[in-house]
Amino acid sequence: AWPRVDIDANPYKASFPLFSEHPGIAFLDSAATAQRPACVLDAQKRFYETMNANPLRGLYSLSIEATEAISSVRRQIAALIGAVDEKGAPRANEVVFTRNTSESLNLVARSFAPTVLEPGDEVAITIMEHHSNLIPWQQACRAAGATLVYLRPTKTGELTDEEIAAKIGPKTKIVAATQVSNVLGVRVPVEKLARAVHAQGGYMVVDAAQSVPHMPVDVRELGADFLAFSAHKALGPMGVGVLWGKLELLEAADPFLTGGEMIDSVTESGAVWAPVPEKFEAGTQDAAGIYATGVALDYLANQVGYEAIRSREAALVHYAMSRLVELPWIDILGSIYWDRHHGVISFNVRGIHPHDVASILDMHNVCIRAGHHCAQPLLAWLECENLACCRASLAFYNDRADVDAFIDGLQSVWSTFHA
Ligand code: PMP
């Protein structure tokens, strides 16, 4: 049974200024970046208008206010992702602000990995990883003399217990995996991977870029040691990323960016790092962006709410899949079951290059993504022609009309090539 949500009605669109600027646009590329509601745009402006000062540097009240704005978002994020102590208090100092998921994952691979990796060790990742959870591990393995091992799902994106048992063993020090694939839309069993690597005394790194926008994420339930996501995919501004990590692991790691704001003291010959998280936050932060990220996550998790997001997105994906499978010239990547897709449907139009598909859809005011989606090893492994595919991604602010425009657009793509 699929969620009975009225996808003809759209109580959300009016809160997103871009949709009034572009009436009739069908924006089906939220996996690349989400649209932002007015409250987030207002927050960014409000920061500069009412509390702008360089945080941390000043002892005057405006600067203290800016610092407090950042601290309060740290607490909010820790609480949101279940990074709390035994009494339920958020472990705010475990939240590091970066520029994006890529930087967060690079930080783990560059700063933490060298503290545990030795020659001959293994790092395991899935073949479904975005390049930003793949190249940093190639580099970390190269630097440490370790081996990168790929967990390969079935062609529909399921990681079997056999595959997990075969690839995670005594040599595995780190497993890094996305919680939701940005190509197949499938949910990866991160909890199982975490149990398997912890049984070997290793560590679990979770790329939550595609999960935080769609579902509640709890680092305790996942068994994560590190978790990364980007504000811009979760209704927040571009340029703000989050890395959560267990305090003792962050404390043991050296910073990979150095400079202002991240030290306790500096002499001619060396420096003493500031405590975590400042140790990892060299230079001036995007304070307005971080402040607006707090507003975005509050809107997402509390005002719209994950339950409403989940059921509405499920209804949209269900409808989109039911229309797509009616088109015999569409090949879906991964599962054809709608409930395996978390906001993301990748596909090809038989015999037509994905770039042509996206360009023709654009003429119909439909935005989808075409290309390798920063997952070339996955597309190679799936034997995707041209190492490319089309991807439509849905968010709760989409509606049935968006999906209908998409399907009509696809009919037009087909007839353009088969007139
Ligand atoms: N991981 C996944 C699963 C993603 O989908 C993306 C963005 N497409 C990233 C990482 C990288 O995010 P960012 O570009 O914000 O660093």
TrEMBL record:
EC nos: 2.8.1.7
Alphabetized UniProt keyword annotations: Pyridoxal phosphate, Transferase
Organism of this sequence: Enorma phocaeensis
Cofactor section: pyridoxal 5'-phosphate
Database matches in Pfam families: Aminotran_5
Reactions catalysed according to its record: (sulfur carrier)-H + L-cysteine = (sulfur carrier)-SH + L-alanine
Boundaries of every Aminotransferase class V domain copy: 27-406
Protein name (record): cysteine desulfurase
